[in-house]
Write a structure and sequence with these properties.
The protein is mainly beta and about 525 residues long. It has three domains: about 90 residues, no CATH class; about 180 residues, Jelly Rolls (Sandwich); about 240 residues, Jelly Rolls (Sandwich). It contains five helices and 29 strands. The strands form three sheets. Strands 1, 2, 3, 4, 5, 6, 7, 8, 9, 10, 11 and 12 form a twelve-stranded antiparallel beta sheet that branches. Helix 2 runs antiparallel to helix 4.
Length: about 525
């Protein structure tokens, strides 16, 4: 038991660019030799950890690989300017772009299935679904086909909202059709109500691809249409590049944020059609976050969707500055806390036994047994019940003024009295941790004997194989446990009994019990409350 209850193609980095106005970094190939690429660095190159923003995390990652052996394919991604070495030049290039926001892949359907977390399928106008509406596994595209003449449709809804300053880009591949048929955008669930400039295709509409009693402005050329939707205040600008490279722009007005976005693909008057949808990317804006989360001490954050933008982390609301900001319940109407960063481990090294601390405090961890797996962002670590990450103890890890512990966690095996991250000797009253007890998340803060309960627990079990964001906050007087942005429990709390144990992730391995977690952990952050 834990706690007081007893406890190199020639060696060139090949950058595949998606080009319809904006660069998009998709991937690399490697070999043993390398030719310098001294062309301008793109936002996507400088975004080393591929989280959609260039920030201090990327600088720290490049710095951690300074001087690494370029025969190692792992090192190649950190050579930002392509001169065959990782050095301070690369770090300076990243630093010069600090704060820039990059396009981030939303979905390219490469998984072969429709991700229910990202998409919702529906119909409209009481029509039945089209004959085919699914992800074509062989092509890696979302496939909408009506084979037999009849009125039918499929709506593909992006399962998130957009705020002013954000953009969406995607491709529509038109493969042909007859009769009335089209694919068109819906803003906030309906046709865009008005335009800044009159549309010259009033019969068939502005924005559709296909045919509806006449040709619409985008026409019906066989091939790929590359489209960007830019969400502004009271307006959405749609820019489309047709297969003949003609650019068509529509400025839709009469709309208001937050915006929902749907692609409505349908037939009428017994039409048939074949469309494919692919390569959805999202881009946010620094201003979005600045509008929604001030950087004062305690605040409220507006909006239900967490942005990935600027120097903010979308999921933790950490602002990568000298001080860090955590909006513990996901910036959805909750209190935010100021804290000094103590350590941040995102496990994106992908190989090796070192878990680098990206906070700048040099609290690198040693990985004992845990293996790299797909994480919440990039890679994470999987712990099998015998593994942990060891971070050496220092006195300031006592966090006497209070602290914030947070991590992304996923598990489906049974966990009971197991630790996600903490500093504790099991069987004794001391330290702190967030963990899992009987498959429920818990937050332990030592309590002087006989002065009340030492743990907070979630209201339900979370062994569902999904990622969950767990946050424990102790502000010096009160203890809070949040799961996925929801305050699960709180209580008044004293905290005074410290220890000399190492900080560990994935278990305790000190005292009477290992407290060894079984499952995946990613993006662990420890903060000390500002005194």
């Amino acid at each position: 038991m834990l706690g007081k209850r007893g406890l190199t193609i020639s060696s060139i980095v090949t950058i595949i660019i998606l080009s319809f106005g904006v660069l998009g970094l998709v991937g690399y190939s490697f070999s043993a030799e390398r030719t310098a690429n001294l062309s301008p660095v793109s936002c996507e190159q400088a975004d080393v950890n591929r989280d959609g923003r260039v920030d201090l995390i990327d600088m720290s990652l490049v710095k951690s690989k300074n001087g690494c052996n370029m025969n190692n394919a792992e090192c190649v991604r950190y050579d930002i300017n392509g001169d065959g070495r990782v050095n301070l030049i690369d770090m300076s290039l990243v630093k010069s772009m600090n704060g820039e926001v990059c396009w981030v892949l939303y979905d390219d359907f490469s998984s072969g299935v429709l991700d229910a977390d990202k998409w919702v399928e529906s119909t409209w106008h009481n029509r039945p679904f089209t004959d085919e509406h699914y992800v074509n596994q062989s092509e890696g595209r979302y496939h909408v086909v009506q084979n037999f003449p009849r009125d039918a449709e499929t709506n593909l809804v992006v399962n998130r909202v957009f705020y002013p300053g954000e953009s969406l880009r995607y491709e529509i591949i038109y493969n042909g059709g007859s009769g009335n048929h089209q694919s068109q955008p819906l803003i906030n669930g309906n046709y865009p109500p008005s335009q800044e400039n009159q549309c010259f295709y009033l019969t068939a509409g502005c924005g559709p691809i296909g045919y509806w009693n006449a040709l619409p402005d985008l026409g019906n050329q066989i091939g790929t249409y590359k489209i960007t939707q830019e969400f502004l205040v009271g307006k959405v600008i749609m820019t489309a590049i047709r297969p003949d490279n003609v650019v068509v722009q529509n400025n839709f007005t009469g709309v208001s944020a937050p915006y929902t976005f749907t692609l409505n693909t349908h037939t009428g008057h017994d039409g048939i059609m074949h469309f494919d949808l692919d390569n959805f990317y999202v881009k946010t804006s620094n201003q979005v976050c600045m509008n929604e989360c001030s950087i004062s001490g305690q605040q409220l954050c507006n909006g239900g969707y967490i942005k990935k933008c600027g120097n903010y982390d979308a999921d933790t609301c950490l602002e990568w500055n000298n001080n860090y900001l955590l909006c513990a319940n996901g910036c959805n109407g909750g209190v935010c806390f100021n804290g000094d960063i103590v350590g941040f481990w995102n496990f994106n090294e992908e190989s090796g036994s070192a878990a680098y601390d990206l906070s700048g405090n040099q609290r690198d961890g040693l990985i004992n047994g845990a293996v790299y797996v797909g994480g919440k962002n990039g890679t994470g670590l999987y712990f099998d019940g015998n593994d942990y990450v060891d971070i050496p103890n220092t006195n300031d890890l006592d966090l006497q003024n209070g602290f914030i512990l947070s991590a992304w966690v996923k598990f489906d095996d049974y966990n009971d009295d197991n630790v996600i991250v903490g500093k504790h000797v099991s069987g004794y009253v001391n330290g702190y941790f967030i963990g899992v007890q009987d498959n429920k998340f818990d937050f332990y803060v030592n309590n002087p004997p006989f002065l009340g309960e030492d743990r907070l627990r979630s209201s339900r079990a979370y062994n569902d194989g999904e990622w969950h964001y767990v946050v424990g906050v102790y502000n010096g007087t009160t203890q809070y446990l949040y799961v996925d942005g929801i305050l699960e429990a709180q209580q008044s709390k004293e905290y005074s009994i410290f220890n000399s144990a190492n900080l560990r992730i994935g278990g305790i391995f000190e005292g009477q019990d290992n407290g060894a977690f079984i499952g995946s952990i990613d993006e662990v952050v420890v903060q000390g409350m500002v005194s």
